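yo

u said u wanted the structure for the complex thing, so here. seqs first:
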Amino acid sequence: MARETREARQPWLLLAPALTTIFFLLVVPVLFVVVYSFWLRTANGSDQPGFYMTNWAEVVTDPFYRDILFNTLKIAAVTTFLCALLGYPTAYFIARSRGNKAMLLMLLMLPFWISYIIRTMSWINILGVSGALNSLLLSLGVIETPLQLLYNEATVVLGLVHFLLPFMVLNIYVSVEGIDETLEDAACSLGSTRWQSFLEVTLPLSLPGLAAGGLLCFVLAAGTYITPLVLGGPTDAMFANLVFEAIITQLDWPLGSALSLVLVAVLGALVFIYNRFFGMAQLMKGLS
Amino acid sequence: MSSVSLRNIVKRFADFTAVHPMFLDIPEGSFVTLLGPSGCGKTTTLRMIAGLLDPTEGEISIGEQLVNNIPMHKRNLGIVFQNYALFPHKTIHDNVAFGLKYRNVSDAEVKRRVEDVLELVQLPDVGSRYPNQLSGGQQQRIALARAIVIKPDVLLLDEPLSALDANLRENMRIELKRIQEKTGITTVFVTHDQSEALAMSDKLVVMSEGRIEQVGAPKDVYDNPESSFVADFLGTSNIIDVNCESADKSGVCVDAKHLGSVCLPREKARNASAGLAAKLVIRAEKLYLVAADTPSDLRSSVEGVVETVDYQGQAVRYFVRVGDLQLQALNMIDNQPFNEGDTVSLRFRPQDCVALKGEG
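structre next:
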């Protein structure tokens, strides 16, 4: 009996360091944020502890926040869709190539060695008024005055796709890599064309990878504030920019807390739905 | 059902020739086996018939039609892959019905044909299951069912039994042959397993290093190997360098050193000529060990010492030393097997031997 309880306790003992770390560095701060969201910022700038619904009422009822939330989800969805569209052929090509896959994957990871902010800002040098593209078009005589290409929703999506594409490619790659190539041969031998075989066999079997990549891209895109800050115009703020604005600029921690919890809840719901259909294990496959 | 013919087929990869100029006729309705060690070009040949590889040179015809430029999906072939290649996300029914989707078959007809073929492979009740819910042997049957339900002109089998364990493999071998005979589909079977090849084929094609070594009925190829490769690859043989003493219409006599002079009937030594080197092939199961003092009524009898005893249950394989020769003998066990170190008398009948042309 004593031995059984000891054995039952053992996994928890081994997990204790990890669980302690997660508890103090993740759970406790989030609880602080939850508590903060019910406080109130007074007119003189100090935080008033207590249980006020004021922030929540504002966040839930003000259409300003709702519109930006919807716009954020829309941008994330468009970004995810574009990543899937560009990422699938790339991943498929790498997975099915007879050449040096490790080398190709390494090239894919190369951008991660440069700071995400630097990578985002590099677009200013490409698309800016005195950037590479405008200089080229001016020197070719295609245009007379530089085009205003930056600071709109399209450049925000462009920056996000640039940032997130490798995550999508890696996830799809892992999935396609695991599909037996002879399955497509078998389908062809039974009378389907190469394209039909792909649609009938490889695509459905790689859906878990596509979904995992999609989830990662969507969550990361919806939670970003750097890209709209650097590449977006004044009207292209995304939801995380509101949190940044409230906390860093206005020093309104209670409102910022409530806003960030809304984003956490929306994305959490998405992850929950994903988990119901595919399970979290698929997500880990792509990351390992 | 159709015949298949390969005319002067060559396959080269970059700097390697996998198949040298090759001619082969596969008659309609026959079961032809391509047999050889790995890397002999048998799978490459099969993949060219399938359309998975294009021949570098030569012509492939199925029936009357030249198929070199016809893509795989229009060749109407049934292929069973080594790893079965069942679609894991489709039910057994959908797997089997897959090929019928591309063939203008009515729903009722699909249902009937899938039921019939599942009956034929003796798995009538698995339609709603998924491949991973079946055993290896069952998956094998489904792969076969999926390949034959489309009524292919030719059935191609790429080492389909190699992933099964020994007992199952022998049962599937009989099953596969039964289904082939029942459906009468022209079948090309690729294997490196000689017992499968000997048991199942109407016609055996032995290949080595991209070339056909010998073609014939299994018994002919086994009893009358035309090269030392075939003699060595099929069964266990003793191949001894000998000199041909005399050769005429009635027979050939060779000087087999320690084994003395051996005289074979002419049809067992077609290519031997007097005065030249030759190779004498003695099948291990045709070389009998008897106690040294047993009186002999056979002319070819010689003494040797048992060096190694490889006990196999109902049979035993001996390695016997005769002078500078080591001979293998595969004998059924009668009473007690001999022990290592025993002196024994070796017996064989000259008409069981084959003399091949020697090198140089």
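Chain A has one domain: 68-287. The interface with chain B takes residues 180, 182-183, 185-194, 196, 200-201, 204-205 of chain A (CB under 8 Å).
cya
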